[in-house]
Amino acid sequence: NPLANFDDPSELASRISVLIPGEDSAFKAFAWQVVQALSEGLVLAGEIPTLTGLYGLVQGGCASLVVRAVRNYAEKSDPAYAIHRKAPLAVKIGRELLYLNADDLEGGLDAKNSIQKKKRLKKEIDIDSILENAGLAVEEPEEQPEANGGDERAAAYWAAYFRTFMRERHSNSAVWGLIGLFEHDREHLQKMITNLIPTLSSLTSGQTAPLLTPEGAAADARPVLDLQRITHSGQVTYIGLNCLANTVVGQAVGSIMLADLASVAGARYNARNAGEEVPVSLFVDECSEVANTSFLQLLNKARGSGFRITAATQTISDFEQKLGSRAAMGQLLGNFNNVLCMRMKDADSMRYIQDLAVKTRVKTVVRTQGTSTGSANPVMAGGVIGERLVEEEQPMVPCELLAMLPNFEFFALISGGAILKCRFPLLVDRREKSRADGKRWF
What we know:
The chain contains 21 helices and nine strands. The protein is elongated and about 130 Å long. It has three domains: 10-198, no CATH class; 225-336, P-loop containing nucleotide triphosphate hydrolases (Rossmann fold), CATH 3.40.50.300; 359-395, no CATH class. The chain is of the alpha+beta class.
């Protein structure tokens, strides 16, 4: 579950917003606000945020979440909840103005019955006094049929409940954000989250959904894992993204895993005990497929959390294409301490390695010789022999050499300036070698 680890629901919004493609900051900021409001609402309702849960709320609306979150918050925070829930509040739904209370919602009363219920409740408690003290005008709704679904009606009631009874003494920014999202113009909302919907869809499609959203796992004996538990217990995890067959889903899954890992690194750093934390080794192959802001934060700061990161890529241009700018590519490459380079053909990558390595001065002996004859007397001949030592600056790792490296050989540019020319050892299966030699291997 890539959303299992967070100290604040806003972390989940940041975790998902980094996956949104494009450079438009306004759309990304609005998407972040939407995910934050939904995440805080789920936490307020006592529920665990999941990818499929967020996707359902983004696609289907948050009316049901408003009901669960505000009702749960009111039960815990409103001292007079038992009385206030019986007070009929004026709720406008479309062109309707209804007087509803919590019992009406549970009983499913229509507009006509809500009027009769209000008159009956007036005999039991002083409803008009409660509404007057809350600053809510008392009006009789017209008797007309209900035009909206139950969730919309219930959400409108609980929004009115919060404004009426809790706005002054028990205000809550998470509730305000959720109500604001519920009351936002639906058509404008859909336009602003155009990039958010495909991102969540890629994380909840096909077989990805049950893997990343372990809901209803009561009958499933497999344990629900998260990166916090894996890193804390020193376990090993291999995540195959299958980017060759399904690039969009593979990139999205890998990116959100790195975002979750950045949250884990932050938690480890805040609660670290020097010398006691278990080191975490992270290996990212084809790193350009999943590189994002969270990965950059891991490279920049996760060493203090005991992280050791190894990344592999084909060319540096892959990072530029993924991150969107050469400056972002340089920021990412600048956070690597050691660089290992095998044979390559990309000119930009070769120049990067050549410029990264130190230069040296090469001494060259220049020898000259020549003969000459005089124009007045051709018999008289002369000669000259010379030798001089010339120094010139040359790269330690020239581009031409990088393109000629044999298989399994590489240059290693080590932090501190050391440059090594190395060869990977070949691991040979003794059994296979013995069979090839016609000998027994045991």
